[in-house]
């Protein structure tokens, strides 16, 4: 877990692209929302780590979204955590949280109207709304419901000054998930 802690120590105080919170505040709030909703530990860990791809070293990035973070951060983060030994569920929830935004914009036009300016900007880099065939395929993902939940928490986790448990608390949950996945 030290490697994850180090990523947050190095970049967690950076602004969360176009939003009024830091990367760490966003991660903590997202995990707290998952926990309050009664999510399992893997889902809480995924909520906490969903944007870890933005914190990875620049040499791992395939490019940047004009000041809005790392292109394909969701895939980079999921692959990074798979290599660490996290479960496929954790990886899938992270890898598809951007697809959830694309899906919801396609499926629910009112969802697009609720997106922050930064989220609208990144949507352009992320492929825009899904097409019908993409949406049908996405709906078959075994973690579809949980992916949409992570996306919802992601959208809500942008409140300046909100009190949350600290990073060590959620790193303990991540450690338990990693130990479980490796046994």
TrEMBL record:
<dbReference type="Pfam" id="PF01966">
    <property type="entry name" value="HD"/>
</dbReference>
<feature type="domain" description="HD">
    <location>
        <begin position="23"/>
        <end position="143"/>
    </location>
</feature>
<dbReference type="InterPro" id="IPR003607">
    <property type="entry name" value="HD/PDEase_dom"/>
</dbReference>
<protein>
    <submittedName>
        <fullName>HD domain-containing protein</fullName>
    </submittedName>
</protein>
<dbReference type="InterPro" id="IPR006675">
    <property type="entry name" value="HDIG_dom"/>
</dbReference>
<dbReference type="InterPro" id="IPR006674">
    <property type="entry name" value="HD_domain"/>
</dbReference>
<dbReference type="InterPro" id="IPR052567">
    <property type="entry name" value="OP_Dioxygenase"/>
</dbReference>
């Amino acid at each position: 877990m030290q490697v994850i802690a180090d990523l947050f120590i190095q970049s967690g105080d950076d602004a969360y692209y176009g939003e009024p919170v830091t990367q760490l505040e966003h991660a903590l709030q997202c995990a707290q929302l998952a926990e309050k909703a009664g999510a399992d530990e893997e889902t809480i860990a995924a909520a906490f780590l969903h944007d870890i791809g933005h914190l990875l070293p620049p040499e791992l990035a395939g490019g940047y979204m004009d000041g809005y973070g790392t292109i394909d951060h969701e895939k980079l983060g999921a692959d990074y955590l798979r290599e660490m030994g996290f479960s496929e569920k954790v990886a899938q929830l992270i890898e598809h949280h951007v697809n959830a935004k694309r899906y919801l914009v396609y499926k629910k036009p009112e969802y697009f109207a609720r997106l922050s300016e930064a989220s609208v900007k990144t949507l352009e880099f992320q492929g825009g709304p899904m097409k019908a065939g993409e949406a049908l395929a996405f709906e078959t993902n075994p973690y579809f419901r949980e992916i949409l939940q992570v996306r919802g928490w992601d959208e809500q986790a942008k409140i300046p000054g909100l009190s949350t448990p600290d990073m060590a608390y959620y790193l303990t949950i991540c450690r338990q998930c990693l130990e479980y996945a490796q046994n």
